[in-house]
């Protein structure tokens, strides 16, 4: 599943993710695409770790980019990884394409000490406006038409925070971005992209 990391160019959420990752830590990147995020983290945070990807072309790109990658379907979970194998598990712009988002978030917290997710905020005002016009929104963060989108579970910032509160998931930090710039005022309305750093409220 490669709805996550795009090919080649650095996305605005990369710096936000890197800011929460300790130097020299271990990272598992789910839906890693061509490995661009892992390469970025290796360069800026001296991380080590693996990517998980299902697409053959993306697997080949990871190998060419010198990124360790495991070919696996995220929908089947992370049974190939032991508990607490990584410091961080990252799911960047892929959670909305998962058929069972709850299972993958729980698996992230089983395999990793902490999790980081990023997703397009469906509550962003431009998306709301398009829906009011009677159309599904198409934007930089939601670039697909309704008929070819991999996204199956779009959510707003308010939805994700309620999801976490109801499942013993502790939000450690949040960053909300629009055109790469931080949004502080009315983030569920004015923010296009959400970035969350979270952990479990239960002791491992």
How would you describe what is shown here?
By secondary structure, the protein is of the alpha/beta class. It has helices at 13-18, 36-45, 56-64, 101-111, 125-132, 157-165, 187-190; strands spanning 26-30, 48-53, 69-71, 86-92, 112-120, 169-178, 181-182, 193-200. The chain has an 8-stranded mixed β-sheet with strand order 3-2-1-4-5-8-6-7, sandwiched between helices. Helix 3 (56-64) links the parallel strand 2 and strand 3. The mean pLDDT is 90.
Give the SSE layout.
Layout lengths: L12 H6 L7 E5 L5 H10 L2 E6 L2 H9 L4 E3 L14 E7 L8 H11 E9 L4 H8 L24 H9 L3 E10 L2 E2 L4 H4 L2 E8 L4
Parallel strand pairs: 1-2, 1-4, 2-3, 4-5
Antiparallel strand pairs: 5-8, 6-7, 6-8
What would CATH call the homologous superfamily? Vaccinia Virus protein VP39
Total number of β-strand segments? 8
Integer average pLDDT: 90
Compute the separation of the termini in Å: 29 Å
Q: Which class of secondary structure composition applies to the elements?
A: alpha/beta
Task: Write a brief caption for the model.
The protein is of the alpha/beta class.
